[in-house]
């Protein structure tokens, strides 16, 4: 892991980021919802991180989002994580900044019920269009 990337991130955002280096090639950065956009944009614009994919999972504490940024110059992944409150998880969409987020945010909406504010196309992606709007098959409460 490029220590410089993590040090610059910590210098810029201070205690607004919780950085955990899991291995020589992977780090997890936990942020509050309000720091979601500034930190993810920083990773792309300043550190030249490439949005590889995103994942969502239902945890007892809320819906966890992880956006995985590849730092190609050193072959590492920096995962930006935030937890959204249930029962109505909501956060600003990254699709307007990163076209690669469009598809995966629609999938996360479809299966976990995360509302992505400002998403350009918030329709269901993979599930039946006659499925009830409040049914999200990957939620623990379903």
Q: What features would you describe in this structure?
A:
By secondary structure, this protein is of the alpha/beta class. It has a domain at 3-87: Beta Polymerase, domain 2 (2-Layer Sandwich). It is built from three helices and seven strands. It is globular and about 50 Å long. A hairpin with a 2-residue loop joins strand 3 (50-59) and strand 4.
Content of β-strand: 25-35%
Quaternary structure state of the chains depicted:
single chain
Kindly state the number of beta strands: 7
Distance N to C terminus? 39 Å
Tell me, briefly, the overall form.
globular
Main beta sheet strand tally, sense and closure = 5 strands, mixed
Q: Structural class of the helices, strands and pairings?
A: alpha/beta
> The CATH topology of the domain at 3-87 is what?
Beta Polymerase, domain 2
Which features would summarize this protein structure in a list?
142 residues; 23% helix; two-stranded parallel ribbon; five-stranded mixed sheet; Beta Polymerase, domain 2; 7 strands
Brief synopsis:
By secondary structure, this protein is an alpha/beta fold. Helices cover 23% and strands 34% of the residues.
């Amino acid at each position: 892991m490029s220590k410089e990337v993590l040090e610059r991130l910590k210098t810029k955002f201070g205690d607004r980021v919780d950085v955990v280096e899991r291995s020589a090639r992977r780090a997890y950065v936990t942020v509050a919802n309000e720091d979601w956009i500034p930190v993810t944009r920083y990773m792309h614009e300043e550190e030249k991180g490439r949005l590889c994919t995103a994942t969502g999972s239902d945890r007892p504490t809320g819906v966890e989002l992880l956006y995985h940024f590849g730092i190609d110059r050193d072959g590492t992944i920096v995962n930006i994580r935030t937890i959204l409150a249930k029962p109505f998880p909501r956060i600003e969409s990254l699709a307007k900044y990163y076209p690669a987020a469009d598809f995966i945010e629609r999938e996360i909406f479809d299966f976990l019920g995360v509302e992505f504010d400002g998403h350009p196309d918030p329709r269901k992606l993979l599930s039946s269009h006659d499925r009830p709007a409040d049914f999200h098959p990957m939620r623990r409460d379903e």
